[in-house]
Design the sequence.
């Protein structure tokens, strides 16, 4: 670069480091997404160059001065086939390449650690399986696949981490997931990319990527001692779900042990998989799907339990043992002292009507 003046070069370098054209590549998928993007930029630039050269070249070659008399050209099949097939091939390469990345982005590995994220005007509330919750912050370990399960408590939001090249909608009434694996430690920006009202621009936060050791320390220092499933267990009792769902033979409701991801037969003969979305519906809208062999006596819990509360209940049902006790839930809480039962559910799991404020 010695032909650029050193001052100009220095200025450029400084500018590029302070205003980078791209966010850092901090996840496994990031370089793959960027490679496809660079390819598309390259193809566009080559196309642009060819078009400009042809425009300039033709206007010189076929100017009125050189060709005062216009000649009618009837067309050339070979030419038309060439400019159809070459771009088609290029676009198909982009399509297949993009599809391969898409499948990678949307298929979380089996060992992905699930973290729940609830969007709400105007903050992001994060629920870790170990019971840690945070607002507008997301602490994760480096080198571990993480799956986020997203839902909104009010309007459409969209959760985007540019440095990881991932983005997913947070939609009211529906769980969406996105996964990524951070490849370096550090702090990265995340924000809402769906205009969602007055303070949309303040719906931002930071992902803190830590070494596994630091992450363990953070987990231990940020928990009340109860996992999300244990919070769910308390909520299950305080909402009297256990009046109908229990291990007793005369229980009025079905036994919920091992119900997670099981195939259920409904009263109309349909079968469904009891995944997160189904369990959420079963709690908030029980009359919509009645399990075969049971009376439609379950009351709705709409408005009585917040999205975080529903998440805790689902997490409880996922870990449910046949005797309806969460003995030991997750290795993230193994290093923590045993907690005694009998506490009431934490404030964040209380009814949705409750107001929250940013810390
Ligand atoms: C009055 C009794 C009663 C109460 C209280 C009750 N349920 Fe139910 N529940 C039922 C019955 C009966 C069914 C099966 C019929 C149906 O699908 O509605 C059911 C179905 C379900 C299902 C669907 C799974 C399946 O196997 O059918 C889930 C999940 C569930 N309840 C969770 C809960 C939770 C969580 C609470 C507390 C917030 C709760 N229930 C409170 C009676 C009750
Ligand atoms: Cu938003």
Sequence:
């Amino acid at each position: 670069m010695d032909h650029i003046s050193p001052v100009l070069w220095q200025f450029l370098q400084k500018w590029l480091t302070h205003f980078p054209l791209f966010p850092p590549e901090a996840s496994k998928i990031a370089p793959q997404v960027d490679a496809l993007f660079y390819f598309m930029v390259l193809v566009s630039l080559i196309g642009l160059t060819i078009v400009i050269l042809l425009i300039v070249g033709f206007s010189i070659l076929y100017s009125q001065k050189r060709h005062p008399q216009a000649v009618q050209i009837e067309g050339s099949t070979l030419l038309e086939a060439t400019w159809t097939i070459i771009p088609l091939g290029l676009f198909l390469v982009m399509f297949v390449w993009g599809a391969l990345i898409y499948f990678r982005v949307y298929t979380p590995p089996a060992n992905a650690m699930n973290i729940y994220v609830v969007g709400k005007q105007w903050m992001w509330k994060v629920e870790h399986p170990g019971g840690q919750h945070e607002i507008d912050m997301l602490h994760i370990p480096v080198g571990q696949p993480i799956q986020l399960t997203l839902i909104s408590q009010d309007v459409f939001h969209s959760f985007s981490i540019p440095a990881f090249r991932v983005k997913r909608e947070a939609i009211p009434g529906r769980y969406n997931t996105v996964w990524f694996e951070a490849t370096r430690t550090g702090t990265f920006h995340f924000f809402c990319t769906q205009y969602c009202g007055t303070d949309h621009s303040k719906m931002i936060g930071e992902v803190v990527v830590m070494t596994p050791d630091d992450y363990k320390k953070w987990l231990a220092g940020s928990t009340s001692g109860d996992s999300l499933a244990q919070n769910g267990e308390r909520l299950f009792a305080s909402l009297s779900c256990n009046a109908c769902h229990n291990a007793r033979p005369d229980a009025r409701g079905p036994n919920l042990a091992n119900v997670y991801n099981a195939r259920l037969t409904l009263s109309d003969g349909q079968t469904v998989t009891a995944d997160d979305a189904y369990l959420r519906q079963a709690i908030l809208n029980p009359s919509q799907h009645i399990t075969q062999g049971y009376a439609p006596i379950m009351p709705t819990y709409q408005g009585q339990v917040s999205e975080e509360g529903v998440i805790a209940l689902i997490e409880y049902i996922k870990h449910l043992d046949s005797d309806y006790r969460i003995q030991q839930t997750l290795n993230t809480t193994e290093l923590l002292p045993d907690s005694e039962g009998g506490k009431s559910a934490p404030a964040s799991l209380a009814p949705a009507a409750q107001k929250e404020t940013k810390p």
The mean pLDDT is 83. Residues 119, 157, 192, 194, 196, 200, 203 surround copper (II) ion (ligand 2) (CB under 6 Å).
